[in-house]
Each structure stands twice: as structure tokens, then as C-alpha cells.
Write a structure and sequence with these properties.
The chain has about 400 residues and is an alpha/beta fold. Helix content is about 30%, strand content about 25%. The protein has two domains: about 10-40 and about 290-405, Lyase, Ornithine Decarboxylase, Chain A, domain 1, CATH 2.40.37; about 70-285, TIM Barrel (Alpha-Beta Barrel). It binds pyridoxal-5'-phosphate. Pyridoxal-5'-phosphate binds near residues 86, 203, 206, 288 and 387. Pfam families: Orn_Arg_deC_N (PF02784).
């Protein structure tokens, strides 16, 4: 038997079934017309943003990194709750434009921005988080051709990292951002070239659950911003301090203590140097905002035994749930939170592995989990499916195609 991850708070049983936003899994599946189906709860997302705002200093603004989940109705919902949106491609620019989000609320980071992407972003008034000196030159040349002052910020490759983070994005050689020691010179250069100076972006990593590590990183981020701005002799209109707030996926993971983080950041903001006194301060979060608000529902198609082990074979799989299958940035596969939605809250009665319908041993949603007895036709729920599920899985693999998605 292998443990399952913790089911996020807020999911309850209704008539013995999992309910999401007060609606039974079977009725959601009926409305969608088929499984597999992602269901995202509006209310849980709104509550998450509200609790974050309550914990953090009032001055801190919150951006949503749309790569976590860009389902159009969800994007519109989240856009109405947060201060700004972070995008990482021209495709994501089209998505925020379709959601009628003004370019002044959008910033665009990511290495390898193509000229067409830079042009579309500059034309839309989006802030470009420059990833290199070369990108700065291309952006300035395109802006000149368009006759527009580009909104430019610099993404910094910091000289420290976020300890304990699932995915490190700073410290040492990286394809992301400009090495901190070269940033002051680039700041002066782009301001002299006539850009609208939008400040700095310092992102150090993802999926951290340790408040102390994040507190230390935020303090380092503010200190580094101060050093670079002082050296350049410039002001700082805006500082995107990155994010990295994680959610519990696996057995033993505990939720991030955001009250502790908010208190520490509040103290730090009391004593900011003059260089940062007027800067708008942002954090940028993806999974923390939407991850726990999403559930993936998939139906059991077959129930079989092999050498004494039970397999529940579903109509979903890694083509929608790459991360839950253990194939998206994890070293050792561990079970995500998962339940039999048709018998939610029932006592476990057997050990079974839940697998997907793809012809590969990688396609496993739960390995040797202790579950209530489930039959063909029952619905399985994979939790923590609101981020990096549909948006980060190879849905074309084996001709399967995308899952349905619903915001309720
Ligand atoms: C992916 C990404 C995020 C969001 O990360 P989460 O772990 O989902 O919060 C934020 N900022 C940048 C620059 C990113 O690349």
C-alpha cells in the first residue's frame, strides 16, 4: 500500500458522492456529456485569493501566471480577482486579449520571444520582462518601427535560489533573465533608449511549502533589487518579486503558512530603503491560486486482476494528468490525492492501482492505493488538478484529445 496525497479542504460528500461547488460529480459529468472532465470551483478560487489578500500586506499586489490554467472561463474569473496577469507566449497574449484584459495589466516573461510576439505585446501595451540584452535590442528596434515607447522591465537571474523549491529558476547559470551583475548597465541602456521603464522581475522557483525559505527569498529579492537600482542610480516603478507558493500534493506535505509569510513581509516593508519606497510590489502565483480548486473526473472502464493486484482502468490518464502520473518534473513517483468520487468518504476496502487508458506503464494515476471498492462505471477524482493539468499535458498523445473543462 502506498499513501495518497492529502485531499484539499473544502470537498464534501453529498448523497455519498463527491460534490464540487455544491454539485454532485455525477451531475457534473452528465452536464458535460462525457468524461474525462476537469471541474474548477469558482468559489474556491475566490476564497483562495481573498485569504491571500487578508494574509499579505495591503501594499502587495497579486498577479496570476496563466500558464497554470488558461481555460477561458477560469481566466476571466481569475482576471476579475487579481491585479495583473503574467503570460509567457504570444498564444497566451491572445488568451488574455480574448478575456478583455488590458495590456497595462499584463507582463510577458519567457526566453525565446519571437519578433512577432514582441511586436504584438508592444502594440498591446504589455510589459516585456526582458530575458537578455539581445531581446532588449530587438524589442527597442521593433518599438521604434511601430513608433511606440515599449514598456520594458528586466528579468533578473538572481545570485541566490529558493531553498526547497520543486523547480529552481535562479542561482548560477540559467537560460532565464539577465545575470544580476549585468542588470544595472542594461537598465541605464534601455531607459536612455526611451522606453517606459517598468522595473524588475525576480523569480526564483516554484512549489515551495516552507514559509521560512520563502521569507528568506523575498528578503533577498528586495535586497538585490535595492542593490541593482542603487548601482544604476535609477528609481524603481515596479518590482515583481516572483512567487513560488506551493500546495500540498503528497502524503506528508503540509500547507504553506501564509499568515507567517504575510507578517514577515509586512515587517520587511516597514523598513524598505528609499530606492524601493515607491515601487509597486507584486507577487506572481499560478498553482497556489487555482491548483486546489480543480478536480479531474474520469470513469472506470475496466476492473482487472494481474498476479494478485487489482487495476482500475479509467478513460483518462497522463495525457491530461502528466503531473499526477509522476512525469512532470518529479524524480520519485508519489501518489497525488485521489478518491472514488462515486463513494466519497466511504471506508477503504481494498488496495488497487488506478491507471489511465494509454498503452504505457507511465500512465498511472494512483499506485497501490487504499480505496473503497469501485466497479466499472464509477467515477474517480484526482485532486489538485486545477494547475498544470489540462494546460501542461500532452492531450494529443495516442489520439486521445483534450478533456472537457467546466467552471462551476
Ligand atoms: C511558472 C511561473 C510562475 C507560476 O508558478 P507556480 O508554481 O504555478 O506558482 C510564476 N512566474 C514565472 C516567471 C513562471 O515561470
Amino acid at each position: 500500500m502506498k499513501p495518497l496525497g492529502p485531499i484539499p479542504a473544502g470537498f464534501e460528500a453529498l448523497d455519498g458522492e463527491l460534490a464540487i461547488s455544491g454539485r454532485k460529480a455525477s451531475s457534473l459529468v452528465e452536464e458535460a456529456g462525457r468524461t474525462p472532465l476537469f471541474v474548477y470551483s469558482k468559489q474556491m478560487i475566490a476564497e483562495r485569493v481573498a485569504s491571500l489578500r487578508a494574509a499579505m500586506p495591503a501594499r502587495l499586489k497579486i498577479n496570476y501566471a496563466i500558464k497554470a490554467n488558461s481555460f477561458a472561463p477560469l481566466l476571466e474569473h481569475v482576471a476579475g480577482l487579481v491585479d495583473g496577469l503574467d503570460i509567457a507566449s504570444g498564444g497566451e497574449l491572445e488568451m488574455v486579449q480574448a478575456a478583455s484584459v488590458g495590456g497595462d495589466r499584463v507582463s510577458f516573461a519567457g526566453p525565446g520571444k519571437r519578433d512577432e510576439e514582441l511586436e504584438a505585446a508592444i502594440a498591446a501595451g504589455v510589459t516585456l520582462n526582458l530575458e537578455s540584452e539581445n531581446e532588449a535590442q530587438r524589442a527597442l528596434a521593433i518599438a521604434e518601427r511601430l513608433g511606440k515607447a515599449p514598456r520594458l522591465a528586466i528579468r533578473v537571474n538572481p545570485d541566490f535560489e529558493l531553498k526547497g523549491s520543486g523547480m529552481k529558476m535562479g542561482g548560477g547559470a540559467k537560460p532565464f533573465g539577465v545575470d544580476a551583475e549585468r542588470v544595472p548597465a542594461l537598465m541605464r541602456e534601455i531607459v536612455d533608449a526611451g522606453c517606459e521603464w517598468r522595473g524588475l522581475h525576480i523569480f526564483t522557483g516554484s512549489q515551495a511549502l516552507d514559509a521560512d525559505a520563502l521569507i528568506e527569498t523575498q528578503a533577498n529579492t528586495l535586497d538585490l533589487a535595492h542593490r541593482m537600482v542603487s548601482e544604476a542610480g535609477m528609481s524603481l516603478p515596479k518590482l515583481n518579486m516572483g512567487g513560488g507558493f506551493g500546495i500540498p500534493y503528497f502524503s506528508g506535505d503540509t500547507p504553506l503558512d501564509i499568515e507567517k509569510m504575510g507578517a514577515a513581509l509586512g515587517d520587511k516593508l516597514e523598513t524598505l530603503p528609499d530606492t524601493l519606497a515607491d515601487a509597486e510590489l507584486f507577487i506572481e502565483l499560478g498553482r497556489y491560486i487555482v491548483g486546489e480548486a480543480g478536480v479531474y473526473l474520469t470513469r472506470i472502464i475496466d476492473r482487472k486482476e494481474s498476479h494478485g493486484e487489482t487495476y482500475l482502468v479509467t478513460d483518462g490518464g497522463l495525457h491530461h494528468q502528466l503531473a499526477a502520473s509522476g512525469n512532470f518534473g518529479t524524480v520519485v513517483r508519489r501518489n497525488y490525492p485521489l478518491a472514488i468520487a462515486s463513494h466519497f468518504g466511504a471506508e477503504p476496502a481494498e488496495v488497487a492501482s488506478v491507471v489511465g487508458c494509454l498503452c504505457t506503464p507511465l500512465d498511472r494515476l494512483a499506485d497501490k492505493a487504499n480505496l473503497p471498492r469501485a466497479e466499472v462505471g464509477d467515477i474517480v477524482a484526482v485532486f489538485c488538478a486545477g494547475a498544470y493539468g489540462a494546460s501542461a499535458s500532452p492531450s494529443a498523445f495516442l489520439g486521445q484529445g483534450p478533456a472537457e473543462e467546466m467552471l462551476v
